[in-house]
Amino acid sequence: MTDASPLALAAALLDALEPLPHTERRGELAVRARRLAAQGALRAVLVELADGDPYERRIAVIAAAVGGDAEWIGACLADEDAVVRGHALRAARTLGVPDSAYEKAFADAPAAVRRHLVRAIVVDRRTALADRLVITARDMYGDIEAARLLPGCSATTVAALLPELRRSTDCWSSLGHHHPGPLLDSAEEELAGLPATARDAWWQDDGHTRGIAAALPALPERVLDLLEQFGPKRLPTALHGPFGRLVAADPARVARLAIRPDVCTHLHRALSGTQLRRLVRALPDALLVELGRSAPDQLAALLCALPPGRRAALHEAVTDGRGEGASGTTVDTGLLAALPRNRVAPVARRLAERARDRGGDAAVLLATSYLPFEEGRGPLLAATRGPVADDRATAWSLLVGSAGRSGDPAVVAAVLEELLRLRNEQDPVRSAALTALAGVKPALFTDAVEPLLDRVAADAVEARDSSPATRSALGRLAVGVLREHAVTGQRDLLNWALHPGPHHRQQRQRRLRPAGPDPAQGSGAHRVRSAAALAGSGCGTLRLRSRPGSRPRRGPSRRRHARPPGAAVAGRELRRALGCPERRDPLAPGPGRPRRAGRAAARPASVGRRAPGGPARRDAPADGPAGGLPRRDTAPGPVPGARRALDGGGRRGGALDARPAACRPGRGGAHGRGREAAAAPAHRRPGPARPHTRAGSRRRTALDQRRGRGDRRGRARRPPAHRPARRRPARPARPRR
Predict the structure, then answer these.
(1) Contact (CB, 8 A) for 36 and 9
(2) Of 76, 165, 239, 556, which residue is the least packed, with the fewest Cβ within 10 Å?
(3) pLDDT of residue 711
(4) Closest Cα to residue 578, out of 673, 658, 489?
């Protein structure tokens, strides 16, 4: 027991908390509250704080919660301050505040306070208290106030009062969660008393469906009974989420419910792909056939949910005596894609005949593309020479897709030869064909088609109307080829995937030499696969540009093409797995190389200089082909696909960019002037990029004057040459009139 007065203790507490931040203040308050509780002075300090401002009253309720003063917390349950009331209601759960404190607070509390008290009673599961208060609340405040207490009441009370308070209930989700049985009993009783024409309106009520959805996990069989007896014509949206529990409870009953034409139509829309697979694989064959006949437009989804070995039998059983015409579409491409390969041709012929009878030329061509390639090649090639550009684009897409579905590399090579005609096509036609080509399995490409791919890519990029969609399709194609053939030993394809642009033909002449072990065999195969997967993971947003010498813009637009995490590591691992030599610092001393300063001084002045009227020369060697700086390709900045991943994702410091910072393009080296900056004298070093605005020039001049003619980095700039001032000749004086 302390001798200090409660007022002094309260003042000392407030003075100790005043300079502390929020987190430390809470900790210090807890320490001091426990200390005061141990000394027996906490209640007196709380009384002093209760007479103060709202801040002091909030400090008091927190101190009471920490000190374990349940009586003080019970007195604050109906406090007018929402913060004080919230702290009291949270602390009452753990301090064991008696029910009498809630009843006393509920008696004369306003409506907002009563809502908080009801929520706390329901959450704390004070069932006996809720059973007593529901009668009092109904008599004093009406049915709406009483209905809010139903989730906290006992099952007996809910079963007795819910039919009477059904019209006033709004907390259906909480009621279905706490009392699923009484809620379903009330719903069944109410639906049984309604006529059949009024039941759909009942199911459209959002509160009813929310309550049934909350009760479904606990009693799925009861919900199935309710749907079978009084179900709506269309399943409510609120039941789509938990509908998987009905499939897990009884798949056969769910299938029979889906077959019925009068109840829960379009039930398949409530099933996800996983739920549909679980449903069809648990059904017997007879019920599965009946389910397929009841929804012919969903036959493709049912076939895809089955293992491939059962699809042909189900398709024959469903279409026996009915044909494929039961669905609404003339040519169901989803159905043709779901069927096994040996079953596609007969179905495609029947669909083509049906489309021909209906007079749909586009549908006939679509069905023809699913026939064997040699059988459908003639009509598809004839359609690629049509007069309408949209029809030619569709025909090219169907032709490429037909070759990809054949699974024959020779067929793909033949189609690539036909794609050479795209050089003289419009870009929409070319873009559609290349998009379809990017969807072909990369395993169907071989080294023999590398010249064809090179020609197609060059023609597409060099076209005057080349679009971003076309270049994006080429990038996806290159990344797919790299991922597939990184371990197959197809060197030509791998080189094409690394340099897919038209300006990399000289770069492709330096083939990847098979130094080291064969990447397709031995222990290095897994390294190649993982590195190729990493290299292609972030390369889909690269852009192919056709103008040599162009570079990506600076600023926020360039940040979108930042390298993905691990791109430099992926490029380094891929180069090591493929046996490529490591990049090294071109200015670092080595065997047979002069020192850095001497090498920089011996370099010709033309290296790295900008040619008059042309782009920066970045590929000129220092000492001839055998030595000096490694050749840099003359491509326009980053290249698409894996080349960007190997270069570090378009940023400096990638796996292929081992040059020092002063030699990399960027600030001070974007125009090829940074290679000699590392060893050049101080007054010859290029300064940072200068602003091109008049205001920026004025700021730069003022800053240079303050720093003694130094630039913003403090470097000494080359002093200007002193030239004699040029004076204008004096004009002769005009004679006076």
Answers:
(1) yes
(2) 556
(3) 44
(4) 489
Q: Which helix (H) or strand (E) holds 230?
A: helix 220-230
Q: Which residue has the tokens 């192919």?
A: 544
**Whole-number Å distance between alpha carbons of 25 and 14:** 10
Q: Among 79, 87, 7, which residue's Cα sits nearest to residue 47?
A: 7
Alpha helices in 231-370 (DSSP H): 243-249, 251-259, 273-281, 285-294, 299-305, 308-319, 333-338, 341-358, 361-368
pLDDT per position as a tens digit, 308-359: 989 999 999 998 877 665 555 788 888 899 998 888 999 999 889 888 888 7
**CA–CA gap between residue 181 and residue 187 (Å, rounded):** 10
Distance CA 543, CA 640 (A): 6
pLDDT category, 452, cuts 50, 70, 90?
very high
Whether 681 shows a pLDDT value over 50: the answer reads no
Question: pTM score > 0.70 for this model?
Answer: no
Which residues on neighbouring strands pair with residue 257, listed in sequence order?
A: none
Residues with Cβ < 8 Å from 439, sequence gap 6 or more? 400, 401, 404
What is the spatial distance between Cα 169 and Cα 190, in angstroms, rounded to a whole number? 14
Which residue bears the tokens 């994006």? Answer: 472
Task: Kindly indicate the confidence band of residue 143, based on its pLDDT and cuts at 50, 70 and 90.
Answer: very high
Which residue carries 């753990």 as its tokens?
Answer: 94
Beta strands in 614-721, from DSSP E residues, in sequence order: none
Nearest to 113 by CA among 87, 144, 135, 81: 81
Write phi, then psi, for 234 (nearest 5 degrees).
-130, 130
Contacts of 51 (CB under 8 A, 6+ apart): none
Residue 579 has, within 13 A of its CA and on its CB side, a CA count of 15
Environment class of 714 (CB within 10 Å of its CB; exposed 0-12, middle 13-18, buried 19+): exposed
In the block, residue with structure tokens 């809630």: 102
Q: What is the pLDDT of residue 555?
A: 41
Q: Are 238 and 267 in contact (CB under 8 A)?
A: no
